[in-house]
Fold this protein.
Amino acid sequence: MGAGRYDVIVVGARVAGAATAMLLARQGLRVLAVDRVSFPSDTVSSHQLQVPGAALLYRWGLLGQLTAAATPPVRRVRFDAGGGLVMDGQFPGHDGVDALYSPRRTLLDSVLVEAAREAGAEIRENFRVTQVTASGGRVTGIRGSARGRPAVTETASLVIGADGKRSLVAAAVGARRYRERPVRSFASYSYWAGIPVPDGELYQRPGRAVAVFPTNDELTMVYVAAPVTEFASARTNLEGHYLRTLDQCADLGERVRSGSRAERLRTTPDQPNTFRRPHGPGWALVGDAGVVMDSVSAQGMTNALRDASYLSAAVIAGLGGSRPLAAALRGHQRRRDRAIRGMYDFTLGLAAFSRATPGQRRFLAAVAADQRETDRFLGAFAGIVPPEQYFTLGTVVRILGPRGIRKYRTSEVGGTAARAVSGRVT
Ligand SMILES: Cc1cc2nc3c(=O)[nH]c(=O)nc-3n(C[C@H](O)[C@H](O)[C@H](O)COP(=O)(O)OP(=O)(O)OC[C@H]3O[C@@H](n4cnc5c(N)ncnc54)[C@H](O)[C@@H]3O)c2cc1C
């Protein structure tokens, strides 16, 4: 299938890269995937894998490995919007899966890497790419080295950057950015023992979003997001900032203090929001390298898995000759952008931490009073129903009725109803 020793080289082998390598190798392509780390490996990421992400693992035959490692399925979530507004509901099912999972990255990324290996991909761990090679304006391969070894060059028909939000591949090819927005929030999270939670918990407080989910080893992951403008002052005492936020969330602070912190607190303000053009001559991008967004909506891994599925279909069509590769990759960009745009805008709305208007609170109260609507709302919040399909004027009218909608000021509905309702629930 073309020049190069490999059909495809994938740089980066976590959720996006390992999944892409696995899907391509399962179709018989000669795939090399490299990563500068060795697995199992942790990374700065909390790790709610939303129902659609879990459904992809199920389709690929890998979800059982998460459950076998005692990753608790979470079917219910309690959403506390503050001021006594609480919704308690169940995630809608998606493609045969009805639970969210929070596997540790040491587990999830290893499962994917092993699946890629098993499918026939060559995986080189501890291998750092330092350069993307090109000839006549077309990417031809990579140059890099395994730890302590001399540099080598490897060639392929296509080099895929799955190397995360600070992608070397994207920088090397000058991938154009679009829809870029400034960093909005910083996040802190840690793992707690002795505070078991059977369900997920989400809290919205002024200037804060909090998520609590059970993970492996009977630990509970507790995550806090706050405006990045507070980062400089919070820095002097990050743990104090984190615990003070938990104290605002019903009895959460008390529960957490009654347990013990099992690992250090991780904090990061490195949360860019951007799309990148994901293809060009001899190259493509997948996962965070292609689209990255604030972690407040916990969508990055699900996006990465979906992107891996879409991109690998395009690459198989393009390299297999059923469609010109460039056209297949252009089609992939359109499909990716359509799938992710609504959630991207919704996420930016959440990360703005705006206060809810009275109309929005009326909307939320009406949702909370109706179990079916609560489940639908939670489904949109988790990306099971695309947020742009749920947060519409039609939904507001359906829930508040024609009388209620009149009280909803024009400014609250104005622009798109999605913006009016989403991300403004505090
Ligand atoms: C604080 C925080 C919380 C988050 N919480 C969630 C959540 O709850 N749910 C969710 O779905 N997402 C969450 N995310 C987002 C999620 O972590 C990312 O979207 C996801 O990891 C993207 O996967 P990826 O494979 O594209 O990139 P990455 O996971 O970043 O992997 C990139 C890989 O490329 C390798 N690499 C990079 N450069 C090179 C090089 N030059 N040579 C060789 N290898 C290289 C790296 O070693 C790395 O292993 C969170 C993110 C943050 C920051």
